[in-house]
Amino acid sequence: MNQKIDWKIIKKIFFVGIKGVGMMPLSIIAKEYGFEVAGSDLNEEFITDEVLIANKIKVFDFKIENIEEFFKNDSSDSCLVITTGAHSGYDNPQVKWAKGKGIVVYNQGEALSVFMNGAPFGRELKGITVTGSHGKTTVSAMISSAFVSLGLDPSYAVGTSQISPIGYSGHYGIGEYFIAEGDEYVGEPVYDRTPKILYQKPNIVIINNIDFDHPDVYKDLNDVKDTILKFINNMKDNGLVLLNSDDLNLKDLESSIRDDLEVVFYGSNNSDYSISDINSIIGSIKFTVVKNNIFFGNFESFIPGKHNVYNMLAAITLLDKIGFDLDKIKKATESYRGCKRRMEKIGVTKKGQVVIDDYGHHPFEIKSTLKALKDFYGKRIVCVFQSHTYSRTKEFLNEFANSFGEVDELILLPIFKSQRDTESDIISSNEFADAFRKKVENVYMAKSIEDASSYIEGLQNYDNEVVVTIGAGEVYKVGYKLII
């Protein structure tokens, strides 16, 4: 873990799997600081492509000659490779070449922890990690956006490609804070199965919830809870822990948290910071925040979903604990307008349907998102869903099928296979689709992106209809084919 390197002599960093939403932000940070940066990935379209092109970061394929050319004439101790766990992880040919040349290789989790502590930049930073099973991208994006609005110029690495209104999801700032989305998945699925968050030792932690996910890593919910508790107790001394009081799994951890850590709860019940008087209208949600049972302030969210009101409460709680006054907190948090692939409005079809794209890939996330969009737009929902990984799909098939109660028309895409899936995880398209047909009246099993797009175009269209693409694979491409 975190092999010792002399950052004063590091000149170049090569990112293997650079298009990943955990990798791309790190490459932006590295380039903005002053390292020479390049990377490799598949020759397929990703949501990060636009950002990498705009920042003039070259992306090659996985041939050894590409990384060899990038590091040509450089000593091994002036080079660094950062790799994702995907694309064969440490067995990727470029990674194996680098190790053979004596070049240090970090996985994404290790690299993020080192960036957070400030070692590459020659200064100590205050780390803020946002983690949990659901909502961590949104909360970390909200906090990054708020800190930028307040003039703090933080560094941040958020698991998406772009954040509105602040731009790219990775940034090197001159401020004292580093905001990171913490991932509970492993650093490398074969050789280093350490959960990525366990590399980090932040000053501040925000956790929205704990749920059973990643069945290829965790054996059950208690296993996830143990990892989260270990992460909390690995924080720096006298840190701040913000927990969602509405999640009973988080409440269970309270008595086992280190005594020197300040624990603050936010939520709807038994909280230091709570919400009352939520008023949903078309286009926004108004709500009241109460602090220690005393009125704190009125706020407004301009993104769909009551669950995002509670995400916003996490940001409000943090800013108040840091010491900002109410007017600045309101202005900073209300400026947030969403991030890429999180209930993102990507356009309108030629027939006038609004098209929304979302990354949701867990049953709880999907159900919350669809309910939020139904309430926010008040329209019929045509949904295209692509499940991500056979192992997750098989484990949660019934839960997935029960998540589409708000949907009027459901189009399913073939499951997006992961490299970590095994033959025993595979389920047939018929088995997959039949589970949904028991729960949703209108279900179509599409053969491809093109088939799904054509099917939607052939439907009877309504003036009061929203098309939603949801999932962690390539499902977003359906929406882009439909919009004008």
Please give the count of helices.
16
Distance between the termini: 48 Å
Mean pLDDT: 91
- The tally of domains stands at 3
**Strand tally, please?**
24
- Which architecture of the largest domain does the CATH hierarchy give at level 2? 3-Layer(aba) Sandwich
Flag low-confidence runs.
none
User: What general form does the structure show?
Assistant: globular
Beta content comes to: 25-35%
What is the CATH fold-level name of the largest domain? UDP-N-acetylmuramoyl-L-alanine:D-glutamate ligase
CATH superfamily of the largest domain: Mur-like, catalytic domain
- Structural class label: alpha/beta
How can the largest sheet be summarized? 11 strands, mixed
Radius of gyration: 22 Å
Question: What percentage of residues falls in helices of 4 or more residues?
Answer: 25-40%
* CATH first level of the largest domain: Alpha Beta
Q: How would you sum up this structure, described in words?
A:
- The structure is a single chain.
- This protein is α/β, with parallel strands linked by helices.
- The protein has helices at 24-33, 49-54, 64-70, 93-100, 108-117, 136-149, 221-232, 248-251, 306-322, 326-334, 363-377, 390-395, 397-401, 429-437, 449-458, 476-482; strands at residues 12-16, 36-40, 58-60, 79-83, 104-107, 126-131, 155-164, 167-171, 177-181, 186-188, 192-195, 204-207, 240-244, 262-267, 273-281, 284-291, 294-301, 338-339, 344-348, 354-358, 380-386, 409-412, 443-445, 465-471.
- It folds into three domains: 1-108, 3-Layer(aba) Sandwich (Rossmann fold); 125-340, UDP-N-acetylmuramoyl-L-alanine:D-glutamate ligase; 344-482, Mur ligase, C-terminal domain (Protein-Tyrosine Phosphatase, Chain A, Alpha-Beta Complex).
- The protein is built from 16 helices and 24 strands.
- Helix 2 links the parallel strand 2 and strand 3.
